[in-house]
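hi! just following up on the protien thing from before. the input was this:
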Amino acid sequence: MFSWLSGKSTTTTNVEGDAAAAPAAEEGGGVWGFVKGMFSTDQLKVEESGGQQQEATLSMDDTQRKGLFSQMSSLVGKDITSMISLPVWIFEPISFLQVMAEPLEYEHLLQQAAQTNDVLDQFAYVTAFNMALYSRAIRTRKPFNPLLGETFELVASDGRYKFVAEQVSHHPPIGVSCTTTKDYSMQLETELKSKFYGNSSEVYISGNNILTINKTGDQFCWGHVVSCCHNILIGSLWLDHYGDLEIKHTSGYKAVIHFQKAGYFGSGRYVVTGEIMDSNGNIKMKVEGAWNSHMNSIRINDDGTEQAPKSIWTATVDSSVNDNKFKFTKFITEEVINLTPEYEAILPLTDSRLRADRRALEAGDISQAGTMKTEMEEAQRARKRSREAAGEDWQTRYFTKVDDAKWGHVWKFDQKYWQERDDRVAKYMSTKSQGTSLTTSTMLLSLISTDTTRILLESTTIISKESDSEPPVWCPTTS
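and the predicted 3d structure came back as:
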């Protein structure tokens, strides 16, 4: 079998993958990043690692276009979420669990919602957060589909929040996350389905997203709108988001936010309007704007007249996207994919940052990334067959789905992840203070709590260095 981290021959790991990745389109922010870049017909370029700055041009030539069309032609009208395996040249070096953390670029909007006592202002900020998720529509590559059991953590550099996600289901693909701060906590849940129409693909995301205000216990719950990738085989790729997003509150207040579907020649694209109503259905506030640029709120007086619009959110230009080959924002580069040796030493082996295919692609080694991706997919099929033969069901590690009287269900986070992380950090600091020199593989094993080590070692052999001069196999190649 093959380790999902290294793609090398080992016993199997307790992390599951998918032979096929879910569809994606160009959106770069929030949960919608998973629908970005599924079949980009644009020219993709990846610079090789090393000092010579060579370029590997990954254009979709006629042969590739015909091959992709042949692969997809029999799937018109079907849910293609987990039906096909896509070539690595359309991917970006990031996992969907990492994409789930991208909305935290706009975390300040949630902080503002948690810090105000006015429920209408809270609705305005929560609505703006949901619009801002779509404002980074600049990337056309696809994230890697998470392996079952894969995790990802993000601890803000200023300490104001911490985020952890886990891939809890393979079929259907479901990822859940928990963000915690001193003012609020937030659960995100994404279950993806899709339908292919020939030259477009619609993606339907279901799941409960729940924001809890710590000081009151009040909760907001919302779902998702439809995302559609147009011209995936012929023409210029573009993305649209449309439908009604309903945001509910424990008080009985609710918002209905309408994302307008683009008409012919793109008319009406980006436009968002909505109304916030009290428990009796009376309109108390309106919102207006565009999901790629801004949002204003308009309070409604008791006599039905409207107050002056108030600016709640305005998109900012991130020029750093032009400075890197994958068009990652500054937030992604500095927070989501940043990996120092010290940080690597305290991560669990299930973290998305350590995926071998992702790291190879980030280093510009397309061939190695493809090889590792294929080996990981083959290994996950074998693991699934082994479980089925043994009559075993997959057990989630940090999240448990439970019934909820108000929202139907929630994913209960047991906090065990952060307890294990504290143990790893403490052991790492102890090791450093003793001046002990360990290989990365040995250090990682020593930093993981006993129970985590047992789970991982049931199916994984950690790859050690072949020689003292070579880095561990899951480390990126350096020169």
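The first strand starts at residue 44 and ends at 47.
Residues 366-390 form the longest helix (25 residues).
cheers
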